[in-house]
Amino acid sequence: MDAVSPEQQHAFRADHELVQKAIRDGVTSKRASSHDKHWEKWIDFCLEHGIDPHLSNHTDPVPILQIFTQRYRDGRISASGKAVRARTAEDVLRAVGQKFSSMGTLDPRLDKHGSIDFRIQRQIRSYKKVDTPPQRVKPVPIAIILHMLVIAHTLHVTDASRNVADMITVAFYFLIRPGEYTGTKTDDHPFLIQDVSLHLGTRPLDTYTAPLHELEAATSVSYTFTRQKNGICNETISHGRSRHHL
Question: What's the pTM?
C-alpha cells in the first residue's frame, strides 16, 4: 500500500470496511452481536492464560479450544455465569472458528481434511449425551382451531367474534413457528401483508384490486420471507386450501 497514492489508500480502506460490513450483514444484527461477544470471551480467556488469541505459535490448537469450550460449558466463562447446554457451547466455539476464517486464517477447529477435529466432535457429543431433552413448545392442535371456528360461525355471536376467529386461523397457518416475524423491539422485518400472495390456480391475484369473489375462490396463498436468521432472502412458503367449509 505504501507504493500507491493517499487517495488510493483511502479508497482501498473504505472498500475493506464495506466488505466487512457485508460479512456482518450476512446474518441478523443480533447474531452478529452474539458472535462479537463470543470472540471477546475468547480474547479474555487467552489473555488470562498468556496465549496468543490468534494461536500463531501453536501447531496443535485443539486442546486450547477444548479447554475454552469446557469452561464455557460449565459456566466459568459463560455470559450468564451458569452452565450451558451442549449446543450453546458448540455455537460459541463455532463463532470463534468463523472469526478466524473472516480474518483470512484457517479455522483452528478443522483438521487437514477440512472437517471438525475428531477430539472436538467427541467432546461436544459427550455434552449432548448428558443434556436433558430440550423443552420445546408444542404447536396448538388443529382440533382447537376447528372447534373455535365452529363456535364462532354457527352460534349467535358477534361479527367481532367471528373476525377474531378468522384472524386466529390466519395466525395458526402463518405464525405456527415462534412469532419472530411479527415484529419486536429488536426486529425491523415484521410480517407484512405486502409479502402475501393469493393464487387462483396458477394465476396470481392482486390482493388490493382483485374482486372479492376471486379472493374468496383462491386456491393457494403464499408468504415471502424477505429476510431470515439463516441469511436466506425471499424464501417463499405456500398453503393450499384446506377444503374445510369454514
Answer: 0.58
